[in-house]
Amino acid sequence: MRPYILETRHLSKRFKRQQAVADVSLKIPKGTVYGLLGPNGAGKTTTLKMITGLLRPSEGEILVGGKPWERRHLERIGALIEAPALYGNLTARENLMVHAKLLRLPAQRIEELLGTVDLQETRSKKASQFSLGMKQRLGIAIALLNQPELLILDEPTNGLDPLGIQELRELIRSFPGQGITVILSSHILSEVEQIADHIGIISGGRLGYESEIHTGEDLEALFMQVVARNREQAGVQHA
């Protein structure tokens, strides 16, 4: 059995009267791609923001390598949540240099990362001229600057054309071989099925299912079943 690189225990988040995430307990095996699957508004991004310290949980705890989450653990985590933070007037190389300086990291890895995300030939092209797929890949390169053990990607294929999706899929699948565990959130069943080893299905802020993906499993039927059950339970609680 693989050790867990990250766990959440009864993680919850409320915004005034709105319960965005409720009692979510995730177990992320080390060296895998974990797909956090759910419809839009299910609580995926809120959960990931709590893991990365962008939001403070209302309840519950987060464990990194079996130890309670501390800010120092962010040194082991890279994240691309929502749109990548890019300087449009700078090249890919210059963007990486700026972020390396902000993080006080050596610049030696920049050329390596440009090769990893296939942007080494962009030369003097400004980020504002990049396609959406190129911007996403540059955002991933920035997230990889600190050589993370855990990479968190929030809906990374949103808006990409089929070629961009294929390129990003191959890139993400390569990370476990480099010692990087990936948490990938998505509402697209086919994407998660092709990329992930493990899945968690979240709906209405609640985790309704978590398991390794099994060959021949009808993921769509499972997804619909979990979403329907969560909605039914939420209806009973509010009745």
TrEMBL record:
| ATP-binding listed as a keyword | yes
Q: Does the keyword field hold Acyltransferase?
A: no
Question: Entry's InterPro entries?
Answer: AAA+_ATPase (IPR003593), ABC_Gallidermin_ATP-bd (IPR022501), ABC_transporter-like_ATP-bd (IPR003439), ABC_transporter-like_CS (IPR017871), P-loop_NTPase (IPR027417)
Q: Record's CDD domains?
A: ABC_BcrA_bacitracin_resist (cd03268)
> Could you tell me which SMART domains the record lists for this protein?
AAA
- The residue ranges of the ABC transporter domain are 6-229
UniProt keyword list: ATP-binding, Nucleotide-binding, Transport
Give GO MF terms, alphabetically: ATP binding
PANTHER family from the xrefs? ABC TRANSPORTER, ATP-BINDING PROTEIN
Family from the record? Belongs to the ABC transporter superfamily.
Return the protein name: Lantibiotic ABC transporter ATP-binding protein
Q: Which organism is it from?
A: Paenibacillus helianthi
Upper taxonomic lineage: Bacteria, Bacillati, Bacillota, Bacilli, Bacillales
